[in-house]
Amino acid sequence: MRARAPGRVNLIGEHTDYNDGFVLPAAIDRFTTVDVRPRTDRIVEVDAADLDERDAFTLDAIDRTGSWRDYVRGVVDLLALEHGADLLIESDVPRGAGLSSSAALEVAVGRALSDLPGDRLALLAQRAENEFVGVQCGIMDQFTAALARAGHALLLDCRDLSYRHIPIPDGVAIVVCDSHVERRLASSGYNDRRAACEEAARLLGVTALRDATLEQVAALPEELRKRARHVVTENARTLAAARALGAGDLESVGELMLESHVSMRDDYEIVPDELDELAARVRAVDGCYGSRLTGGGFGGCTVALVAVAAVDDARAAAERAGATAYVCRASDGATRAEP
Q1: What distance in Å separates the CA atoms of residue 294 and residue 279, rounded to the nearest whole number?
Q2: CB 67: neighbour CB atoms within 10 A?
Q3: Using an 8 Å Cβ cutoff, are 109 and 72 in contact?
Q4: What percentage of the chain's residues is helix, strand, coil (to nearest 5)?
Q5: Number of domains comprising the chain
Q6: Taking a C-beta distance cutoff of 8 angstroms, is the pair 319, 285 a contact?
Q7: What is the DSSP letter of 330?
Q8: Do residues 88 and 129 make contact, with C-beta atoms less than 8 angstroms apart?
Q9: φ, ψ for residue 171 (rounded to 5)?
Q10: Which residues have CB under 8 Å from 126's CB, separation 6+?
C-alpha cells in the first residue's frame, strides 16, 4: 500500500489559527510518500530514503528520540496498531522552509496505516505533534494535508473546523520563494506572540481574538494593541480574500495579500528586512497579483500568486534576491492506493 500527503502554503490568514480565526491555505504539489508492508510481529521499521536514515521500535514501548523519528512514532502510538509494519518514506517537500514537511509526514504515515476520515486523521496528526513531538501547532497544516482539493484553496474556520474549497482561477501559479533566512527567533517569537494574543483576549473579556472588534482593541496597551489589531484585521482580510478568489478577482486578492504583509511587518513585527525585500521584488513583476510573507515569520518563505506567463520573471526576481523559487499547483490532500 502506498500513501502520500502534500506540503502546504498559506495564501493568507497568518497567526489567526491559534486565535480561533480563519486561514486560506492550499496544498502544493510536493509530497511525502509512504510505502507500507504489514508485519505479523509488533515491530515497526522505518526507512527514510531521502534522509538515508532508519528507525526501528516496538509497539510495546514507543519512546521519544528528539528527531524526525518522533513524527512517525507519535502517529503510530496514537493509532494503537495491533501489528507492526515496514515503512519506506520519501519526500520532496522542502524542509525548514515553512511548507509543513512535518505535517505531510504525519498525515502520510497516518493515511498509510489507517482508514480514518480526513478530519479525524488531521486531528490525530495534530495531537501527535502537540503531545508526542511537543510542538504546539495549530490545526491548519494537518487539515490542509488531509483535506485539500486540487485546483482550490481551503478556507478553514479554526474554531469549529468547518471549511470550504475555494477555486483558484485557471492560468495562475502559486510561487513559493524560500529566502534561506534562518528562522532563529521563530520559536521564542511565536511563543511571545501567542502569549500576547492570549493576554489581549483576557483583558478584553473574549474567548479569543476572533471575537474582538477593532474598537475594543484600540483600548489595549500599545504592544498588545498592535498584536491584536493584526489578528482582527487579518481575519477580515482572509474572509474577503476567499470571496475575491472565488469570484476570480485576483487584483483584490493581491491587494489583501499586500495589506496582510504590511500588518505582519508593522503590527505583528515578524517580517525581517530580507523577507520584506523579497516579497517586494516579486510583487513588482508584471503579472504578479500579490506577494507576502507566509508562515510563522522571522525568516522562511514568501508566497505569490502569479500569472503563468510571468512565472519565469517571478522566479528570476526571487533568485536575484538570493531565494529559491518553487512553482506550485494546488493539489489534493492525502491519498492512498496500491503502488
Answers
A1: 10
A2: 12
A3: yes
A4: 40, 25, 30
A5: 1
A6: no
A7: B
A8: no
A9: 80, 10
A10: 137, 138, 139, 141, 142, 143
Catalytic residue selected from 141, 178, 266, 286 = 141
Cell of 120: 479525524
Q: How many CB atoms are closer than 10 A to CB 2?
A: 16
Is residue 39 in a domain? no
- Beta-carbon contacts of residue 6 (< 8 Å; ≥ 6 apart): 27, 28, 29, 30, 31, 32, 93, 104, 144, 145, 148, 331, 332, 333, 334
- What would the pLDDT profile of 115-147 be if each residue is shown by its tens digit? 999 999 999 999 999 999 988 788 999 999 999
Distance CA 126, CA 90 (A): 21
For 212-230, how does the pLDDT look when each residue is reduced to its tens digit (9 = 90+)? Answer: 999 999 999 999 999 999 9
Residue 55, C-alpha cell as written in the block:
528507525
- What does the pLDDT read at residue 185? 63
Q: What is the pLDDT of residue 311?
A: 98
Residue 48 lies in a domain: no
CA–CA dist 150, 176 (Å, integer): 17
Is 126 part of any domain?
Answer: no
Residue 185: Cβ within 10 Å count: 15
Span 237-255, average pLDDT: 98
pLDDT mean over 185-201:
87
- Structure-block grid coordinates of residue 252: 483584490
Q: Extract the C-alpha cell encoding 137.
A: 501547532
The number of helices, as runs of H, and strands, as runs of E, in the chain is 10, 12
| Residue 62 DSSP symbol | -
DSSP 264-293: HHHTS----HHHHHHHHHHHTSTTEEEEEE
pLDDT, position 247: 98
Domain containing 274 equals 172-328
Adjacent-strand bridge partners of 176: 303, 326
The lowest-confidence range among 38-42, 179-183, 332-336 is 179-183
Active site residue 313: no
Q: What is the pLDDT of residues 15-38, one digit of tens each?
A: 999 999 999 999 999 999 999 999
CATH code: domain of residue 315? 3.30.70.890
Classify residue 71: in a domain, yes or no.
Answer: no
Q: For residues 280 and 190, what is the distance between their CA atoms, to the nearest angstrom?
A: 24
